[in-house]
Amino acid sequence: MTSGGFDDPATGWTGADVDARISQNLYPGNGRADRVVETDDAGNQITVMQQVIDLPEATTTALTFDSLLRPKSNATADSQGFRVDILDSAGHGIASQSFPPSNTYQAYAMPVTFPEAGSYTLRLTELAPNVTVLEEDISLLVGVVEGTAIDTPDGPAPIESLQIGDLVSTQHGPRAIRWIDAHQITPDDLAANSRLRPVKISAGALGQDLPRADLWMSPEHRMLIHTPLCRKLFDADHALVAAHHLTVLDGVEVYDSRESVRYIHLLLDEHAILTAEGTPSESLLLDDTAWDALTAQARAELRALCPDLDTDRSAPKSAAVLPVWRQQKRLARRLAADLAADLPAETSGQTLTDIAAE
User: Fold this and answer.
1) What is the pLDDT of residues 212-225, one digit of tens each?
2) Which domains can be identified in the chain, with CATH numbers?
């Protein structure tokens, strides 16, 4: 997806009354400079913004984004919000969902199944004129890149070599893989859409010699990080942060490659912290949103493999704090400052090393 974080303003987006020139601070007054898109810039207009997404194969995923309703729009809040539609190349809708307003930034996820390879249109439509809704960090796709070494009780193993039933090492000891999913991204896809390119985390970039080797992740795959700010914000020592937010760190960058890449997901009995190239990361979190996004075939396969899934997903428990995206950005910036200042091990990467060794 092009400019899903609006760092390159409205590049890639078309439509009517689209304003991506402003910062998050404009209405909530939170001091943040992160760019957002405003869905009402002029009176009595319905904002529509859209872009075309090319997918190389059928896939099931979730569209994620953050959103906030401008407080002055509260008088008509019951008619506010926006609708998200995803259309196939013939203009037929494959997914549609309306989202209510909130005066604080909320993280949303919309399940979607793309039935085949091809071009799809993502469209956001304002539900009423003269309303101000801000959106940011619109994205698709999560996964670990093929070739990544995942720690197992028998030692590191390439993720593509793992099979259902194999054990992987987690923060709670060895756990069995219950299901594996994968998405293949072609060179043409990568050339056409920079948002599909993996994030490269160079060896040692996260502190304390982690990761052990260069690590590639999809932009949305979350890594477990530690910084004193976690304790201040969440009363927790760690939090999960999407890989693309970590590009503020030295040695972390979007990998400008034209080679094919394959993103792989591992589902365990519960959401867990496993280690990729020695670095704590997450397994697949299969909640109701993710379940609703699966094809009928995938659901049938999962039910056959995991008869207790219907019960398990009713109240999924995250293995660590899942901040909203603006908090993830703040945590990444703080981690970058901690590492640049060469803080003592107990306030930078040492806790991650401890987890990787458990």
Assistant:
1) 888 988 888 889 99
2) 4-134 (2.60.120), 144-342 (2.170.16.10)
